[in-house]
């Protein structure tokens, strides 16, 4: 099945932030955060800046520009609810950002707090994202998919996606759900804000 772009998104550039939530990952060991960036670039998205610092737009120059998606920032934060919420609030203030893709901390272990921190801040939820993700995960890993608390929604006119930390789960969510629909979803949000 070949997906065609929505007619309301030709030439649109979507600017994304990538946030890994982990107590153990570093930029060198963060395979899922790196994979998200690679998939965005592979889908004709651009990277504006990178580093382990919170977002700072200003006059950042593009590191790579493929024209469809931009990565404005990449950071790794601890799996602490306060840090996760601070990051969302910080990113929510940027006029230059369309979407934030979190990975990690969506399971049910005691330290998995990403879902709880993000869900409280969402102004609108996209329940279909989590439902479809778990359905697609079930097709790949069976009943273990019930432990996933992947979630998506809107905060401060930014799309927020929260994915598991597994590279296989990231690849599934990005290729089957996020990349095909991100430009259309952003287009719909931009209509609301204009």
Residues in β-strands, percent: 15-25%
Number of strands: 7
CATH architecture assignment name: 3-Layer(aba) Sandwich
From the 3D structure, determine the CATH topology.
Answer: Molybdenum Cofactor Biosythetic Enzyme, Chain A
- State the strand order across the main sheet: 2-3-1-4-7-6-5
Radius of gyration over alpha carbons?
15 Å
Q: Give the termini distance in whole angstroms.
A: 34 Å
Going by helix content, strand content and strand pairing, the class is alpha/beta
Query: What is the CATH class name?
Result: Alpha Beta
Q: What would you call the shape? A: globular
Order of helices and strands: EHEEHEHEHEEH
CATH superfamily: MoaB/Mog-like domain
Low-confidence stretches: 46-65
Mean pLDDT: 85
Number of helices: 5
Main sheet? 7 strands, mixed
Domain MoaB/Mog: 17-185
InterPro entries: MoaB, MoaB/Mog-like_dom_sf, MoaB/Mog_dom, MoCF_biosynth_CS
GO biological process, one term: Mo-molybdopterin cofactor biosynthetic process
Function: May be involved in the biosynthesis of molybdopterin.
